[in-house]
């Protein structure tokens, strides 16, 4: 089959390398049918509402607001340029911040009709350790403030649940569903955390969202896709749609280990991947 990569970044977000076109060219070279351009939506619009945002290096996490117009224009132009070689989709990965949807939507409303899908994510927690960018290695010391890693997972899933249940937060796909394991910080009380996982997935099912199978974990210390195979089996049992994302931050990561992961998914029983255009979901056969 021809693969589709729904999660990629580029130099506009200030922590990836390569232009948008570089990623498209790599996807063509690797024989992909589709590439989603899904760079990080800005954080800076939150400064006035969340003073503690200054405690994390948010300027290196996402594109600035003054690049939004350029980003959308670039993707539109590249869609047309490469239309005979590959399908290109427009998207944002948007981080969820509680009680900030009103501010987010002031900026998002100008671009939402241009998008094919939205990735909804949680990278920052506001819990026991204060503001905590838990997937940034510069904050590994924050893990010491928790008695057990499970507490971080519980905070993460609680935040995901608020995001998923929010009627004013726009999203189509939930990303890297067990991201706190990135630095191999494993769950200790598996039953306790899995109960929260199932609860969260039931909210995903209720809102009829898709869950991304993200291969970037295979490149990280944890050496495992997000989410784990145990969670993927629950996703299958709940009949929740899935799709693949490499979370590429350099062009060579496009389509990373898709063949390997697809074989695993087929062995579990999956027969289709979700597919998006103009925020409408259809399905393709695996």
Description:
The protein is α/β, with parallel strands linked by helices. The chain has a single domain, classed as Metal-dependent hydrolases (TIM Barrel). The chain contains seven helices and eleven strands. The protein has a seven-stranded parallel beta sheet with strand order 1-2-3-4-7-8-9. A hairpin with a 2-residue loop joins strand 5 and strand 6. The chain starts with a strand and ends with a strand.
- Overall mean pLDDT: 97
Poorly predicted runs are none
Number of separate structural domains: 1
Residues in β-strands, percent: 15-25%
Q: What form results from the Cα inertia axes? A: globular
Distance between the termini: 7 Å
Please name the defining characteristics of this protein.
single chain; 286 residues; alpha/beta; two-stranded antiparallel sheet
Give the SSE layout.
Blueprint: E1 4-5, H1 20-29, E2 34-37, H2 68-81, E3 87-95, H3 101-108, E4 117-121, E5 124-127, E6 130-133, H4 150-165, E7 173-174, H5 190-207, E8 210-214, H6 229-237, E9 242-245, H7 258-268, E10 272-277, E11 280-285
Parallel strand pairs: 1-2, 2-3, 3-4, 4-7, 7-8, 8-9
Antiparallel strand pairs: 5-6, 10-11
Helix pairs in contact: 4-5
């Amino acid at each position: 089959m021809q693969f589709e990569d729904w999660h990629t970044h580029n130099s506009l977000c200030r922590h990836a390398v390569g232009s948008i076109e570089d990623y498209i060219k790599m996807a063509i070279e690797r024989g992909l049918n589709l590439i989603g351009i899904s760079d990080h939506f800005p954080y800076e619009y939150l400064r006035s509402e969340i003073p503690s945002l200054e405690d994390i290096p948010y300027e290196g996490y996402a594109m600035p607001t003054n690049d939004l117009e350029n980003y959308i224009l670039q993707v539109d132009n590249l869609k047309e340029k490469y239309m005979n070689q590959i399908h290109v989709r427009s998207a944002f990965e948007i981080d969820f911040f509680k009680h900030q949807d009103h501010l987010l939507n002031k900026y998002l409303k100008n671009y939402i009709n241009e998008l094919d899908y939205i990735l909804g994510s949680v990278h920052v927690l506001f819990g026991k350790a204060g503001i905590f960018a838990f997937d940034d290695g510069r904050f590994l010391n924050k893990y010491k403030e928790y008695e057990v890693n499970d507490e971080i997972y519980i905070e993460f899933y609680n935040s995901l649940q608020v995001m998923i249940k929010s009627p004013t937060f726009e999203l189509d796909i939930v990303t890297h569903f067990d991201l706190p394991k990135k630095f191999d910080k494993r769950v200790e009380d598996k039953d306790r955390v899995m109960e929260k996982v199932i609860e969260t997935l039931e909210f995903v099912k209720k809102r009829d969202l898709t869950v991304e199978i993200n291969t970037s974990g295979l490149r990280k210390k944890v050496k495992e896709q997000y989410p784990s195979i145990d969670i993927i089996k629950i996703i299958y049992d709940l009949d929740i749609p899935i799709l693949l994302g490499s979370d590429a931050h350099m062009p060579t990561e496009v389509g990373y280990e898709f063949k390997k992961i697809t074989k695993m998914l087929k062995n579990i029983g999956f027969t289709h991947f979700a597919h998006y255009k103009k925020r409408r979901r259809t399905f393709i056969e695996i």
